Amino acid sequence: MLSEQSAATVRATLPAVGASLGEITERFYAGMFAARPELLRDLFNRGNQAAGTQRQALAGSIAAFAAHLVDRPDDRPDAMLSRIAHKHASLGVAPDQYAIVHEHLFAAIAEVLGDAVTPEVAAAWEEVYWLMANALIAVEKRLHEERGGTAWRPWEVVERVTETADVVTFRLRPADGGPVRGFRPGQYVSVRVPLADGARQIRQYSLSGAPGPGLRQFSVKRVHEDPAPEGEVSGHLHARVRVGDVLELSEAYGDLVLDAGDDTPLLLASAGIGVTPMVAMLGHLAGSGHRAPVTVVHGDRSPAHHALRTDHEACAAKLPDATVRFWYEQDSPAGAETGYVDLADVPVAPGTRAYLCGPLPFMRKVREQLIGKGVAPADVHYEVFGPDLWLAR
Length: 393
Hints:
12 strands
């Protein structure tokens, strides 16, 4: 895939480029948003930009992709590309926007690295960029075709349910009265809302269940905890959106989806609002008659903070062979444990396939423990809410 000459150049320059990626991506975003302010206003998450997490995620993905090509030039990291492509597709990223990114990213590289960017170095990294960009464009095109296009669709809120002090569930139906395309448990939708300053910001929320024919359901945690910036969209949804209001939604995307036979043992581990895709998965497993063992693991601040707890427990109770383990930092009831999730004494059946969603430190710890218990790394799947900082490790 990567030419031999470019592979050698990238291998030689990867340490220098990698060490400067933080500064490169900072200058890249500053330059691009100065030239194209509409991208920050209507496409990129302004909260992630303010926190710097999007820069870290971009740097991590570029470095991971380049390192993979150098190590295996005839291969590509399809799992990483799929995760990025699903997010891009749900946001409505267009092919011509990759050229905009290229222009400003390579201007930032030249600015930061200066004379070190010889024509040979520039050509090699151009090859890396377009290999990644064209692969993403192709996957995103296929995803859009499968879902009937890229158009945003208006959905009317038909029910609003307060789950906890900070989590609200919205149930919606198409405002146009048309049919609703199916989704796979674990997927998410993008929600686009107009804000007071004229911006149209987009956020992604996991579908937290299938509430009925022709409906969509997602649950939103209000972001208002230090050091994270106040959540623009979550705050808007909590404070302003009521039954009868209309929201713009994308079709369902996401590659953290159940892909296991009825005889495959499963482990579904979540923490905090990461419970949302797990509840959707459990509902599907209960409805489809999954017979193999299912281990349900969840950690939260307290039972009062555990969103969708009733659904979590009820869906697991419908399975013939389910084990439920909940951990709470405080106010643990009988049958639950106090502290943080710890799989040390949790039996894990051979051949288990695991699905994780929650804060990154939680997922890293659970993944490490699962691998230590013999679960194949390829059988541990995860979803990150927001920029994928796993790659920036």
